[in-house]
Amino acid sequence: MLSLLILLQTQSPLAVRADTIRPVHDAMHYDVTLIPSDTGGHILGEVQISWRLRSTDLVEMQLDSAMRVIRVLVDGKPNTRLSRTRYGRSEQWIGVPHEKQPGDTLSTRVRYRGYARDGLIVGTNQYGARTVFADNWPDRAHLWIPSQDHPSDKATVAFHVQAPLGQQVIANGVLEKIDTLAQGKSVWHYRLDSPIPVYTMVVGIGRLSRTRLSDAACPVKCVALTVWAYPEDSAYAVRGPFRRAGRIIDYFSNLIGPFPYTSLAHVESSTRFAGMENSTAIFYDEKRYRERTLEERLVAHETAHQWFGDAVTEADWHHLWLSEGFATYLAALWQGHADGDSTFRAVMARAAARIFESEETQKPILDTTATDLPGLLNSNNYQKGAWVLHQLRGIMGDSAFFAGLRHYYDTYKDSTALSADFARIMSQATGQNLEWYFQQALMQPGYPMLDISWQHKDKRLTLDVAQTQPPEWGTYRIRNLILLVDKTPVRISVEGRQSRVVVKGIRRKPRDLVVDPKGWRLLKSQVNGER
Known about the structure:
This protein is α+β, with helices and mostly antiparallel strands. The protein folds into 4 domains: 17-116 and 138-207, tricorn interacting facor f3 domain (Immunoglobulin-like), CATH 2.60.40.1730; 212-310, Zincin-like (2-Layer Sandwich), CATH 3.30.2010; 312-443, Neutral Protease, domain 2 (Orthogonal Bundle), CATH 1.10.390.10; 449-530, Immunoglobulin-like, CATH 2.60.40.1840. It has 11 helices and 31 strands. The strands form 8 sheets. Strands 5-4-10-2-1-13-16-15 form an 8-stranded mixed β-sheet, with no helix packed on it. A 5-stranded mixed β-sheet has the order 18-19-20-22-21. It has a 4-stranded antiparallel β-sheet with strand order 11-12-17-14, with no helix packed on it. The model is unreliable at 1-9 (pLDDT under 50).
């Protein structure tokens, strides 16, 4: 069985890598020094990257052409020969030749300066105070950091950030120390020893009020929890959207596994997104604080990303549902846990309605033709991705589903995965090959649309089920679909465009027939009555 699953994984379209840019070498650690100017948007930076080489090819880093490269060191030495610069510089790339072999290590150190056109947002906040916030997703980190700006290449990171005294700095990981300099400056030193994708490597600078909340998940592993907000919004943040932030971590830690890092900061910022799941430092849109519309479900969604998206990262952008669909479903599970099952069902019903009305329904979740990365933030990867998990849970049962989810997380923590990897793990958890389910859920557009008619005779209920969705959506296999016949559950399987199912033991003509009464399936249905 295992060998079959491995074979299927290597041949499966669920393992497709559609991204055109793929990392050549393995960036293991980023050491970032950042000195923003006190006024304006100019920055001076120096980034040292430790590499493990995979070939004799150039070491290439993306860096926006708006940044002027001052010097490049390789293994601590100037990258020159006979006074001629060896590294290559094109509009978006720095190429460094080397004479080493695959498996060797190498370090590059790039000093640069300029004005970030995007990715590092320098400006004033809604109260007129100066702020600097990174906002990298999806591939905007290279606009201010020399990097391999792709989710499949994860690395540890350290930041050394200069700021005026009186301003605070937040970055990934643990604050190791603050050095006080002359002329009213300080340098904040952060370090994270867990590998994370480049798009979650961030800094934030500004007048921020830091509130320490009670540690979370201590029965599993204590997590230091803080809220960073502009002073004007600090009281709202703590008593409002983050009042149950610790309980959210508790819940996910028990459901999935220990929190992947030692701390988590919730930060008010200038991100263009409602929330951005930067590892250990989630950034939220400041406008939601001013309008008092920041909701707990967003906090739960971004917190869930610390497990799925940050610790376990999609190896190709087209598999984004492994991040966004997971966070959407886990946030719904938290809402059900905290506020009752009816709340969970309502959340999933709203997600289904969003799918039914979306134009993205015409495309599959794994849409290998997509080239617009921001366009991947759509109902397919969020709401439909969540429904892929919910239906899978209905097929597998709670015990096997959550055991499989935990195994998937344990297997790929601090690494990357594709949809085929998840399908393989979940197939192992249930002891059956689920490739058929993932193929139709991820590779087919749309959803089933069922037209049901019936006839009752001699204690037999004959059901004729037609799949009426557009032909280009394909045909769906629906195993163990529950129908409620006058409050009696009946289990049927639908195969093909036309299916006939005979249910024995139905003594009288049904007065009521309900399809999928507990909401485990993403489908539309119409019951036409007796033929």
